[in-house]
Specification:
By secondary structure, this protein is of the alpha/beta class. Helix content is about 45%, strand content about 15%. The protein has a 4-stranded parallel β-sheet with strand order 4-3-9-10, with helices on both faces. A 4-stranded antiparallel β-sheet has the order 5-6-7-8. Helix 4 packs across helix 6, helix 9 packs across helix 10 and helix 10 packs across helix 14. Bound molecules: adenosine monophosphate and zinc ion (ZN).
């Protein structure tokens, strides 16, 4: 356990529906599993929400328990019927689709400031674990083979429905379950299914086939985190049936050992006031947004809403978030530098307190704004340096404000594509003009100096003369 001062953590547990204090099973090894992407297409901004939300939780846990005491597993689902369907539509081999999409996911999520999870298992690398878990479920009387399939026998598990709090009747009435002749009961779900010659498949005691989606997460979490662990997360849409089924599989395969103590679910994201859809033109992939906006501004928008609330994501909100970040970086650039060694472990405590209370990112951001206001009000070296430090340390917990202020301002937080000298004004050209202006000023040729300033202003470059030289930024 870290020696740093740590506030008590509490979170809303989907299992109970209420706020609960968080106590890990083992404070030296805090374990968290988050359902990752199914890799057949670019991630959309809705998929980015759990990645960013649980990245903040990962940062918070590392801060509280120590950077090496947190094990974060986020899987890659690389065998799934959506992937097979995509391969059939496009003719691209499955392996090429999953590899390309996984690489794109990594690049997108890194641009949003997410740390890499500790482990990122791919389902196809854990088929043997899945087969073994299915065998133990059959042996324990919780699953049955029928017609090349293996089904989980929901009636064999009296606690089925504990997460979504639905009765079996409600589940059947919900009709989200597939009715099939080989099922004993309509809500029984697939653990294993047969593959034809054109589908990916692995040999198994039930013939050549492939796993169902739910068993993938149960098997990978057991392999990497054990039968019982601390936190499981994902989007709200996964509560039923995915997480309900994970609980049933994992507890029944492990002799009733409790599976997960804390279930966390992020609310759904809409874009421009509507459900995202290609036909409405509001279907934003992270990849496309990153061509237009800096990743940090997109991240800020995702954190402005509490993770449990629905979020209406708009491009206008990203523009505003970018200007907000400009203000933070401008104030940080202006604040006196630390003389070194002055930083304390407590610089991030105000933000830490907000996050400790059910990951309250909007409150954490309010705290950063208060520091910014203080920075504007009081520019004395001691307080200025302290607030700059607090912004950086508090920002680190949120994965924000970690860029060099000067670098952010020079790039105007532009996406990489826009930084490559848009309008012919690249950094070197600007520096050259500033040198010429400095020379003109030295020679008291103020007319020439002003002409250079006007020329830069016309190109959207703002310059400010400071005691220690001239600073520039893109407006
Ligand atoms: P998928 O690749 O569809 O399995 O989704 C990956 C993750 O993104 C899951 O945790 C989903 O719950 C989450 N997710 C998908 N769509 C949205 C959305 N519109 N808003 C929030 N989370 C979402
Ligand atoms: Zn999962």
């Amino acid at each position: 356990m870290s020696a740093l001062p740590v506030p008590p953590l509490r979170f809303t547990n989907t299992l109970s529906g209420s706020l609960q204090p968080f106590e890990p099973l083992d404070a030296a090894r805090v374990r968290m599993y988050v359902c990752g992407p199914t890799v057949y297409d670019f991630a959309h901004i809705g998929n980015a929400r759990p990645a960013v939300v649980f990245d903040v939780l990962f940062r918070l846990l590392r801060r509280c328990y120590g950077p090496n005491a947190v094990v974060y597993v986020r899987n890659i689902t690389d065998v799934d019927d959506k992937i097979i369907a995509r391969a059939n539509e496009t003719g691209e081999p499955i392996a090429a689709i999953t590899e390309r999409t996984t690489a794109a996911y990594h690049a997108d999520i890194a641009a949003l400031g997410c740390l890499s999870p500790t482990h990122e298992p791919r389902a196809t690398a854990h088929i043997a674990d899945m087969v073994a878990m299915i065998e133990s479920l059959i042996a324990a009387g919780h699953a049955y083979a029928a017609d090349g399939h293996v089904l989980f026998d929901v009636a064999s598990d009296p606690s089925y429905g504990c997460l979504s709090r639905r009765s079996l009747d409600e589940m059947i009435a919900g009709a989200r379950v597939e009715v099939a002749p080989y099922k004993r009961s309509p809500q029984d779900f697939v653990l294993w299914k047969p593959s034809d010659a054109n589908q990916p498949g692995w040999d198994s005691p039930w013939g050549r086939g492939r796993p169902g989606w739910h068993i993938e997460c149960s098997a990978m979490s057991a392999r990497l985190l054990g039968a019982s662990f601390d936190i499981h997360g994902g989007g709200q849409d996964l509560i039923f049936p995915h997480h309900e089924n994970e609980i049933a599989q994992s507890t029944c395969a492990h002799g009733g050992a409790p599976f997960v103590r804390l279930w966390l679910h992020n609310g759904f994201l809409m874009t421009e006031g509507e459900k995202m859809s290609k036909s409405l033109g509001n279907f934003y992939t992270v990849h496309d947004l990153l061509a237009e906006f800096p990743g940090e501004a997109i991240r800020l928008v995702l954190l402005q809403t509490h993770y449990r609330q629905p979020l209406d994501f708009t491009k206008a909100a990203i523009e505003r978030a970018k200007r907000t970040l400009d203000r933070f970086y401008l104030a940080m650039a202006d604040a006196p530098e630390d003389s070194g060694g002055a930083g304390g472990d407590e610089d991030d405590l105000i933000v830490l307190d907000a996050l400790a209370d059910d990951l309250n990112t909007p409150l954490a951001l309010t705290r950063l704004h208060e520091m910014l206001n203080e920075l504007h009000r009081d520019r004395t070296p001691a307080l200025g340096a302290r607030n700059r430090r607090r912004l950086k340390a508090g920002g680190a917990l949120l994965g924000l404000l970690q860029a060099e202020p000067e670098a952010w301002l020079k790039a105007a937080g532009a996406p990489a594509a826009a930084q490559a000298g848009s309008g012919g004004v690249n950094d070197a050209a600007i520096e050259a003009k500033l040198a010429a202006r400095a020379a003109a000023r030295k020679a008291k040729d103020f007319k020439a100096a002003d002409a250079i300033r006007d020329e830069l202003a016309a190109a959207g470059i703002v310059i400010e003369d400071k005691a220690d030289g001239t600073r520039w930024r893109r407006a």
